[in-house]
């Protein structure tokens, strides 16, 4: 069949294929297209199946005796059917037990991270580091991934070996990629010391996840070209056949490209590249277009590529290169003929100069390099000006040029194969000279650095870029950043350089560095440098053998390195004799500090946290660490020298100064229509935690104008040249940006690397310098962007800390648990500090402008905050010292939570368990012929089954049929009765409805849905959420069915401020639980601190609190709400009576005023450190001081504190309780599959299908306009300021002139009135 479809007969019938077909049941065929492959594959299994059927038919129809039939015929049948099944499995279903060993052949089995390794001693562990980098980078998305390495080729340079895989829904991309890379590397020849691993994990944004769209990308395949290179002695040499190919890895999006001052979309650029490069587009993704552009731009040492560059970019003005994408271009053959001329001229010039002993392109004689360049230009121009140039180039005529002095290359109408250079009669020499100059300059200058810089200068989008070439991989690699982060870590002791888009990923080599025998190589610790992603930066890493006589200056690889002022510097030296140098190009005028001043030491740096070790259950480990981490945050906050306290002090200094500023519009004052005081922004769970913080801050400081807005909304409103309308939100692009001037911005990003949050951190610098972030550690991408605000400032900048850190570090689990809880706790600490600062240090003017709490009330909140840790220990079952306390506390809440999670896991696993039970039932009854009703009838009648009456056989058969028809139903009922669950629940996928305050409900919905994102469809669930005191009933009660799972968090109704909130929650739960069908309701579970259980709920889990009691909890039993009504009515009666007497009224008002005065109960104001109030119950000191106040007045005085307790402490405890319960539920479902499938099935609940814990691409608002918008906003502000100054000066001038005129008129009148 292979011969019939057109494959080479000699390559098919080989000795190797004969051996393979017999030993491994496979053959290796030469490369063929998809149609040929399909014909061969399907012909194999169809032919084998036909042979098996024909043989069986023949044996059955032929008359054999019994002995022969049971002997040879059975063996024949077994052989043919085994062959047919084997062929179907391998060729039809492509199942195989062997591996493909050659990517260039098709086997028919009859069936932005990277490492630059300079020290070969570390090669044995480099793949471990690489796998760790992949695992960390996967948080950005891991639908597919790839790595390219280079191996020496026969041509004297290198060839790329690309490894790419598309990840499955439940497979591990890091393991898949490293496994395939190991197999590919086994075939590579390791003949060099330096080694590059350039990789990428992809989250598709412009196309579906496929192998063709997976990085690393290349446009032009491997080709052999004549290559001129610089030898070690500085001389220029020629290599006749060099392997040429390029690879790029790109994180971000290419949106547009400026060509000749005209902006073109990426689709137009892709079509243009197909014409320019004469190669079809390899993949319909934007990153492939970048690879094609780099093929076009990197031309150094290649005359064919340089001629192509000149044909595209050459024009009349030699200093301006302007491509025209619709211009006709020469063929490849014509370009090669032109390149041959340039090559011959260069050889002649070099031979002439070698005769006099000169060398070119030497460091000591850059003038000779320029002289060589000019000689080639003049020699080629001289040849081209004569008639011989047209004969040499295959040109047959010269026509008039459309525009004088301009070069245009067109296809002649008289001959499609001839190239015509059309020059005007007045500008022949000028146009031809410009073409020659452009080509020669590209040959000498356009290395990787220049090509990457040229691309970024004209591209629009976001770019984290790494570029490598087979011609340069033994001496340099280029990384670049703009709009996307890129970090480079240097490890001198191991000779390793790690680069990647994720800061945490480049710390993967830290463990290997710490294990080195020498602590610091040459006294230099490992360090990291982050490229300027805002202004744009290109960094070339050059490496070469060290030389004692080498000067400190880096030898330029092109004239452009000197002419364009590229910065070159030494980075490090490592064992093996290699020196690493860097060449830095900053694209924007927004310059970062010098390279050496941006170093972040990775070793012995308490602010840089290591990557956490890999654990089997990341989600469970994170939840168990919550009490410890939150306790560490509280302890750190009590440390005056802690970084969080320094940041809080600077934050409040800026807020205090803003409060003392006069209102922009005195008639409006502060409020929603005035300027924004604090902007709180973030994404997803970070935003939800920030929204709750902003609500609590508005409650305690009502005078502040606090705006909470998604980072995507901020980016869409003020970060785009064409704003994104925010439909349904009270924000407008034409007015909102005017209110951000000098406001305080609080970014909440628990990862510190979210795309939109990072873009907003840069964007808001155009409005204000008061930008702060709440994140997981000091060393994050957003933190680095904020530190750049104060770079180069005075010594006072050391105290301008802008980063609040939870200390959680990098957490790979996509279901956010500890990072969210720690973020909420840190925001609580910030709120308490703000209240403490306002009550203790703020001026009376600032207090009046913002509003404040007394120091006594703040101390009460601090006591509740400290007690929260003990409550969390009981919920999690692990104390703050990492010790398990579950066994010591049999009544701990963690036991009830896990039991409930296990029960709900049984609901989810019901379908697969019933399927297994049904499969066993069918197998036993069918395979052994033992239907239960048939057997039972035979046993009852006492006769064999064959002797039963006909009607008995029919009836028993009908009963068995009914049992089979309703097999899932009665199996489910039996299983439910066995497990103690209600037997009448609805069959099918379960729905979990979560009800609580918004930030808890939304966060738990995201948490639970991510836990089950990779679950098998037969054991999946739906997750929704709602606010029980708002829209919960309207959104979800119409969807309640038998067996719906309802989990609701209840506020503590024992507190007078929360009694109505709990009443609303209870009403919603009862309304949902009262809906029934066949007498069955939904299964509702409530979680809260109030031990009372609702009558209609299936279960209630009580959370133990360790706090002190409030005044309302010291009252005797009974209904609290009815007591409040009674006390309230009595209090109103007394107030009305007091109002009858003016003196009593004044006394009452003065008493009420003193009760809210900050001095009345400010017993802790003298202490600068915030401590819990020393009292037996909350409000004891207030009760003693105001003993004549009524009970309702005292309880109402605690309403705000109880509100804050609910929003900051109690809701946090319910959040963690939900996490413990749902983690147990997800863990049981996850562990079920490996047990029942003997390890063949399984998934990890800490990841999802998309694997995107951090949204690091446009999601959904791009940031390509941020840099331009920053300049526009600053310029617009300067223009407005200038307008105001000019207007004021003009008004002042007019007033002065009017005053002078009035004085003159008065004097004139006075003089005219004199006698």
Task: Characterize the structure shown.
Keywords: Membrane, Transmembrane, Transmembrane helix. The chain crosses the membrane at residues 908-930, 950-978. The protein is of the alpha+beta class and 1315 residues long. Helix content is 45%, strand content 15%. It has 40 helices and 33 strands. An eight-stranded antiparallel beta sheet has the order 5-4-6-3-16-15-17-21. Strands 10-9-13-14-18-20-19 form a seven-stranded antiparallel beta sheet. Strand 11 and strand 12 form a beta hairpin. Helix 7 (266-277) packs across helix 8 (286-297). The longest helix has 48 residues, at 1266-1313. It is globular. It starts with 8 loop residues before the first helix and ends with a helix.
Query: Overall 3D geometry?
Result: globular
Structural class: alpha+beta
The amount of beta strand, in percent, is 5-15%
What's the story with the biggest beta sheet? Answer: 8 strands, antiparallel
Unreliable stretches: 2-13, 15-25, 63-71, 93-111, 316-323, 359-365, 387-428, 548-563, 1139-1167
Distance between the termini: 132 Å
How many DSSP-defined strands?
A: 33
Major sheet strand order: 5-4-6-3-16-15-17-21
Rg (CA only): 39 Å
Number of helices in the DSSP assignment? 40
- Roughly what percent helix? 40-55%
GO molecular function, one term: carbohydrate derivative binding
InterPro entries: GATase_2_dom, Ntn_hydrolases_N, SIS_dom_sf
Domain Glutamine amidotransferase type-2: 110-413
Protein name: Glutamine amidotransferase type-2 domain-containing protein
